[in-house]
Specification:
α8 runs parallel beside α9. The N terminus is likely disordered. This protein is 41% helix and 16% strand. The chain is globular and about 50 Å long. A 6-stranded mixed β-sheet has the order 4-3-2-1-5-6. The protein has one domain: Nucleotidyltransferase, domain 5 (2-Layer Sandwich). With 206 residues, the chain is of the alpha/beta class. It has 9 helices and 6 strands.
């Protein structure tokens, strides 16, 4: 038993505090909507490195980021749909936002994007979105259609809006409808809220 505990204590225990923030841009609001892009951040909710890195890009940090554009045809082949009202909404955005969202460069199938996302989040214990009732349900639908399981269970999902209400904070909007930018800002809100609420990292046994 002593040998087992010794090896356990050699692990990087911070990996057990890694959380995932995910954000998606879509072509609809329904659970079966086509996904345009996926952004995600794996981060330590007890740290403050997201804001520090914004202020100083060379600041040390432990978070990692993920961003992929999705081939919308691959979504439609899985039975996912495009909402015309959402297309109309996108058409009213700034030209640079439209170009960034809809350019064909670098797109991957939804199957490949989800596989990469799930590997990216493999060490995470909590999964955040704003709100899980949108982002995660759409991802779960796509994963089911693709024959994939998700790395989270219902009790591991967390809602940024709940934490905003408890802490009195609000997430700064990127105003660019950029999935990674939104995920980054939302993860930064979680770090700030944990600090404001006085939440501390659980002690591990020696």
């Amino acid at each position: 038993m002593g040998i087992i505990l010794s090896k356990f204590n050699q692990f990087d225990k911070t990996k057990y505090e890694k959380h995932l923030m995910v954000d998606i841009e879509t072509l609809g609001q329904a659970r079966n909507s086509v996904i345009l892009s996926v952004g995600a951040v794996v981060f330590d909710p007890y740290a403050t490195d997201l804001e520090e890195t914004l202020q100083n890009s060379s600041a040390p940090h432990t978070f990692t980021t993920f961003y992929k554009k999705v081939d919308t045809d691959s979504c439609e082949k899985l039975g996912m749909v495009i909402d015309e009202d959402t297309i109309t909404w996108w058409s009213k955005q700034k030209s640079e936002i439209i170009e960034a969202a809809f350019t064909d460069d670098g797109r991957e199938t939804i199957q490949d994007v989800l596989k990469e996302l799930f590997v990216f989040s493999r060490h995470c214990t909590r999964f955040w979105a704003k709100s899980p009732e949108f982002d995660m349900l759409i991802i779960e639908f796509a994963a089911k259609q693709a024959g994939l399981g998700t790395p989270w269970t219902y009790h591991a999902c967390r809602d940024v809006r709940t934490l905003e209400e408890l802490s009195g904070l609000s997430t700064k909007s990127s105003n660019t409808h950029d999935a990674l930018g939104d995920a980054y800002n939302q993860a930064m809100t979680v770090q700030k809220a944990y600090a404001k609420l006085g939440l501390v990292r659980p002690e591990w046994p020696d």
